[in-house]
Amino acid sequence: MIDEEALRSIEKLHQMKQEGIISESDFDAAKQDILKGRTRPKPRSPKPNAYTHPVAENDYSLPNDGDFIEWIMLPLKKYADFTGRSGRREFWMFQILVTAVSFVFFISIPELYKTTNLLFAAVSGMALLGLAVPQIALQVRRFHDQDKSGWFALFNLFPYIGPVIVLIFMLIGGTRWENRYGPDPYER
């Protein structure tokens, strides 16, 4: 006979399987453990140390892999959040937006002297300025993902070579697991 608590646990496991949180094999193994009377220890929260940070009030969950618009908009949701970590996907998906706005702005520069395009160029320029803060915050979080100080983003201020250095750093993958700036952003 199955007791009520075991039945609730199996129902919860089934729900987690339906939502894609656990796989079919994990579901079967956990169900067998429950039916045999074995229980798995509940995961404990990590002990605070030099590398753990309290969870921020705005704990942003990562979008699904195929949801490109959400990936592009994620840095805008974290507009001026200079804490935590961001992965390469978040950075490069946001670069699509910045590149598109830059392209529109620089295409309209030769037409600046025409009154019809002056408003369009002004709006594009203001959009670029508006994207500057999330861009810098995202670079700081990418440096944090590599376990480097966010001050490395100041390399952008060196003419010509500085942005190239930052771009090279943005190509480098982050540290796995938790580092002093928080947990791995892609560990779900």
Provide a brief overview of the structure.
The protein has about 190 residues and is mostly helical.
Our estimate of the beta-strand percent is under 5%
Shape: elongated
Order of helical and strand elements: HHHHHH
Major pleated sheet? none
Average predicted confidence as pLDDT: 77
**Tally of separate domains:** 2
Give the count of helical stretches: 6
Spell out the key features of this protein.
mainly alpha; elongated; 188 residues; 2 domains; single chain
Can you characterise this structure?
The chain has 188 residues and is mostly helical. The protein folds into 2 domains: 32 residues; 104 residues, no CATH class. Helices cover 53% and strands 0% of the residues. The chain has 6 helices and no strands. α1 packs antiparallel against α2. The radius of gyration is 23 Å and the shape is elongated. The protein starts with a helix and ends in a 17-residue tail after the last helix.
Topology:
Elements: H1 4-18, H2 24-35, H3 68-77, H4 88-108, H5 115-145, H6 161-171
